[in-house]
Specification:
Layout lengths: L5 E5 L3 H8 L7 E6 L3 E3 L4 H5 L9 E3 H4 L6 E5 L4 E3 L4 E4 L2 E4 L2 E4 L3 E3 L17 H20 L3 H7 L1 E5 L3 H17 L13 E5 L11 H14 L2 E3 L6 E3 L2 E4 L2 E4 L2 E4 L3 E3 L16 E2 L5 E2 L2 E6 L4 E2 L13 H19 L18 E4 L5 E5 L2 E4 H15 L3 H17 L21 H6 L3
Helix pairs in contact: 1-8, 4-5
The chain binds flavin-adenine dinucleotide.
């Protein structure tokens, strides 16, 4: 009996899942491998890191997503290398052959040669990252409440976000909002409204991939919230509790890295050309040069829009569109016994870019126009809920947002992973008790 063709898809993120969906009606076996058991909606990760949403609200088990697509087998495995010439992927010492390959392993946080900063300034890429940032942020307020030493308390109430792209802007806005609006009444000794949030950006403007108008409005809205934005400010060193910009420094208990990502390490095992961010320099049809049945989509691929020659941005819609494009190519060629027709080149349709800046504030570039304030925030909310995977998640996120809107509270304020406050001069507990009214 002849074997059905096998399509191996590495990564169940936006790109990989979309490619898998396009193979639903084909006579092939699809092997979907992911190092994690869940698909993660990264655009809302900062809301987990800032205690607005719970991890399960923005993640969905991969098995549940493809449950009805019977030609898919999901395996929880991390692919360690790929042998393009031998048409096989490796999971450690194990080898799995493929007829078609879709690499969609995404990106990871990049410290650009300063990997030692990772421990001191965590990035935001996974659920674990978000829970760790949430732990640090919430612990900072708890430690400030226990602290007698004025300088140490000041540092506990200082947050530095490095990187002024959408993640940095969203984190900085949410941190100020927590400190100024969500929790002040929950503390007795410390005035959380005095918390300082710095947003440091190396370039001349925030949100560099968006319009200048969006950058200007984002700056205005962040400053309105009380965030201290520093542009043209390149971080030169990160210490335990301190960020350096040349000879200047800010003492901060909480440092968050939102300054960049690079492609999954898998790209380095392929033996094909990769760019400075580790992305595979793919052909117009998203195939790997010299390997017409191996493709890369999403953050792992350096692709240009065939119409404009502009690079396709590392965003969810780019990954979804590339995944669909490649899935359709494979489906077409699987069902076509004659030699494949000439493949089209990938074209990117930019449906707009947006970033939110706290409660009812956002900026959006859509259809050549820039929106700000409540309108942009509504647009942002609708789009994000629409793209969340799973009806339960859509519903829960809407309910959480509505609740937060009404009561200005954050429901996921859990400190997990240990509680050992680091306090320079701890307050006398008896005295602390007397701070209650
Ligand atoms: C904090 C944050 C906020 C963002 N906000 C936005 C936004 O507002 N709008 C927007 O459009 N985009 C946003 N993005 C970018 C967007 O999330 C990415 O562009 C998109 O997820 C890329 O999709 P992908 O399929 O290439 O990779 P991913 O969605 O990252 O999926 C990659 C998958 O591959 C798996 N994987 C990785 N390595 C291996 C391996 N070796 N073996 C097996 N599996 C592996 C991973 O576990 C993961 O499931 C944001 C990203 C982050 C981190």
């Amino acid at each position: 009996m002849s074997r059905r063709p096998r399509v191996v898809v590495v990564g169940a993120g936006f790109g990989g899942l979309e490619a898998v969906r396009k193979l639903a009606q084909t006579d092939c076996e699809v092997l979907l491998l992911d190092a994690r058991n869940h698909h993660l909606f990264q655009p809302l990760l900062y809301q987990v890191a800032t205690a607005a949403l719970s991890p399960a609200d923005i993640a969905e088990p991969v098995r549940a997503i493809v449950r009805k697509q019977k030609n898919v087998q999901v395996l929880l495995r991390e692919v360690t290398s790929v042998d393009l010439a031998g048409q096989a992927i490796h999971v450690g010492a194990e080898e799995v052959a493929y007829d078609w390959l879709v690499l969609a392993a995404g990106a990871r946080t990049a410290y650009f040669g300063n990997d030692e900063w990772a421990r001191l300034a965590p990035g935001l890429k996974t659920i674990d990252d978000a829970i760790e940032i949430r732990r640090r942020v919430l612990m900072a307020f708890e430690e400030a409440e226990l602290e007698e030493d004025e300088e140490a308390r000041r540092a506990k109430l200082t947050f530095v976000v490095i990187g002024g792209g959408p993640t940095g802007v969203e984190m900085a806005g949410a941190l100020r909002e927590i400190a100024a609006m969500s929790i002040p009444e929950d503390f007795r000794r410390v005035d959380t409204k005095t918390a300082r949030v710095y947003l440091l950006e190396g370039g001349p403007r925030l949100l560099p991939t968006m319009s200048e108008e969006a950058s200007r409005r984002a700056l205005e809205q962040l400053e309105g919230l009380g965030v201290q934005v520093r542009l043209d400010t390149m971080v030169t060193e990160v210490d335990d509790g301190c960020v350096w910009v040349g000879d200047d420094s800010v003492a901060a208990a909480n440092i968050i890295w939102a300054a960049g990502v690079e492609a999954s390490d898998l790209t380095r095992t392929l033996g094909v050309d990769i760019d400075k961010q580790g992305r595979i320099e793919v052909e117009g049809d998203c195939s790997l040069p010299g390997y017409s049945r191996a493709f890369a989509v999403g953050d792992i691929a350096a692709q240009v829009d065939a119409a404009t020659g502009e690079p396709v941005p590392g965003v969810a819609q780019g990954a979804i569109q590339m995944g669909a494009f490649v899935g359709e190519i494979i489906a077409r060629e699987l069902s076509n016994a004659s030699p494949p027709p000439r493949r089209p080149a990938f074209r990117y349709r930019n449906k707009g870019e947006m970033a939110t800046i706290g409660r009812a504030r956002a900026v959006a570039d859509v259809g050549g126009r820039t929106f700000g304030g409540v309108l942009a925030w509504l647009l942002w909310s609708v789009v994000h809920v629409a793209f969340l995977v799973g009806f339960r998640n859509k519903l829960l996120v809407m309910v959480h947002w509505a609740w937060q809107w009404l009561v200005q509270s954050r429901g996921a304020r859990l400190i997990t992973g240990g509680f050992a406050p680091r306090v320079a001069d701890p307050v006398d507990l008896d005295e602390a008790a007397r701070s209650a009214d």
